[in-house]
Design a protein that fits this description.
The complex is a heterodimer of chains A (about 240) and B (about 210). Chain A is an alpha/beta fold. Chain A contains 7 helices and 9 strands, in the order E-H-E-E-H-E-H-H-H-E-E-E-H-E-E-H. The chains are: A alpha/beta (about 240), B alpha+beta (about 210).
Chain lengths: ~240, ~210
């Protein structure tokens, strides 16, 4: 379950506060996934103590600050995701709509096979194409996105215009990128990261998809799927 | 400012002490006009009397009831009682406080979760000289168990006693369940301040509206 509370002393009008909250939530909290399960209790509340006069001409600054707080908290949540060894950030651009971009991002971070590949530092990027195509096939039938899209991981182009652009050297670099973002028992002095009481992960696995269809974009956060996730939740008792 | 990017130098914490020091120095200061408190107590869940448990209550309170509040909630079709109550609170004129308990989520519990949540709100309101309808309840934890209303009410004096105006850290820690560490972010902006806290480690793909 995700609970979050945002406090401010700025006297932002009630309806403005609610509108901004809805917009920012759509781009942040509603754009992350640890394990694809939506809780029965997720709640985010925002409260102003109405202490400091707010100039409506500064609305964009306030919105940007609210976004920074919310997106930062979402990063903290995925970094603390159960069993997480890697955190993934998927940027989708060139989409026909924000919903399409976010849907593809979610399809990628929620793919069990892709999550396992990331967990194992496996450059099995065919699963990335699968995750994009799966979403498009369900929601945008008839669009042959494989001919228009490009995919990069860790800044490395791995797919463009219907074909993979992989070779042995690229695969080694992909593995290195994922390992750099991985927590292991042996990094940082052999600390057990699965029970560490401070934030791990200083780097993410970065995936970028350009659909080549339009101008909309979205960013989604997710994590890998590890033995620890299964152990934590199989062993959990009320 | 903490960064978290593969392209920029990252802020790396090497111990819990280092992380808490960072939170205290950079993020935990409350905006003006808020008090926060927390208290922990033992109770025996009626569904599992063989498992004596601890619950933490967290209270977040503007110094005076405020018109300026909002919330979004899960769209899960089996929502907890606090969600049902919370949705109604959005049409209230003012909000006086938020009460959060961990350990039990008050979802689909026997005996009336909504009335339990309301009873807790009324008791909190009594201690703060507010109306029950000015209190937003939140619960997180085990699904299906009933809220231990009497132990919660008994713990309220201690909760109110713990209110302070300095740090949000007790709230960030108090709402945790399976989290490994508290989560706080803040930004100073437009002559004021925004501070946020969050909890969550599993069952996470929010779709709030």
């Amino acid at each position: 379950t995700m609970l979050s509370y945002i406090l401010t002393d700025l006297s932002v009008p009630r309806e403005t506060l609610r509108q901004l909250l809805a917009e920012v939530v759509e781009e942040t909290y509603n754009a992350m996934s640890v394990d694809t399960d939506e809780s029965t209790s997720d709640t985010l509340a925002i409260v102003s103590s109405d202490q400091i006069p707010f100039d409506m001409s500064q609305l964009e600054q306030f919105r940007a600050a609210l976004y920074e707080v919310c997106s930062g908290l979402c990063e903290d949540i995925v970094r603390n995701g159960e069993g997480a060894h890697h955190v993934m950030r998927v940027k989708v651009k060139g989409a026909e709509s924000h919903a399409q971009a976010k849907g593809i991002g979610k399809s990628i971070v929620n793919s069990p096979l892709l999550k396992c590949a990331v967990a194992g530092n496996d450059p099995n990027v065919g699963r990335l194409v699968m995750a994009v195509g799966k979403y498009m096939g369900k929601h945008h039938k008839g669009v042959n996105v494989s001919e228009t899209m490009t995919i990069s991981m860790g800044g490395l182009r791995i797919f463009e215009f219907g074909e993979f652009t992989l070779n042995g050297d690229v695969e080694k670099e992909l593995v290195a990128h994922m390992k750099k973002a991985q927590l292991t028992e042996t990094t940082r002095g052999g600390v057990d990261h699965t029970s560490r009481d401070y934030p791990p992960h200083d780097q993410m696995v970065e995936i970028e998809v350009d659909l080549g269809l339009g101008t909309a974009s979205a960013q989604v956060l997710g994590i890998d799927l590890t033995h620890e996730y299964v152990a934590i939740n199989a062993d959990y008792r009320s | 400012r903490r960064s978290f990017s593969s392209k920029k130098p990252a802020f790396v914490f090497n111990s819990a002490a280092e992380y808490y020091k960072y939170l205290n120095e950079h993020h935990s200061r409350l905006p003006w006009g808020f008090s926060v408190g927390s208290t922990t107590f033992k109770f025996v869940p009626q569904e599992a009397p063989h498992l004596p448990s601890k619950m933490t209550l967290t209270l977040i309170k503007p110094h005076k009831p405020t018109l300026l509040f909002g919330a979004v909630f899960t769209q899960n079709a089996c929502p907890g009682a606090p969600i049902k109550v919370g949705r109604k609170r959005l049409s209230e004129d003012t909000l006086g406080a938020i009460i959060v308990n961990n350990k039990i989520s008050n979802v689909c519990a026997n005996g009336g979760g909504v009335s339990d949540a309301q009873e807790v709100c009324d008791a909190v309101a009594h201690h703060l000289d507010l109306r029950g309808s000015q209190i937003l309840p939140s619960s997180t934890g085990v699904i299906g168990w009933r809220l231990p209303v009497d132990p919660i009410i008994n713990a309220l004096p201690s909760l109110v006693e713990s209110l302070q105006d300095e740090s949000i850290l007790p709230a960030a820690s108090g709402i945790m369940t399976t989290d490994l560490y508290p989560k706080i972010r803040s930004v100073d902006v437009c002559g004021g301040r925004i501070v946020g806290i969050a909890k969550g480690a599993g069952m996470i793909e929010p779709n709030m509206a």
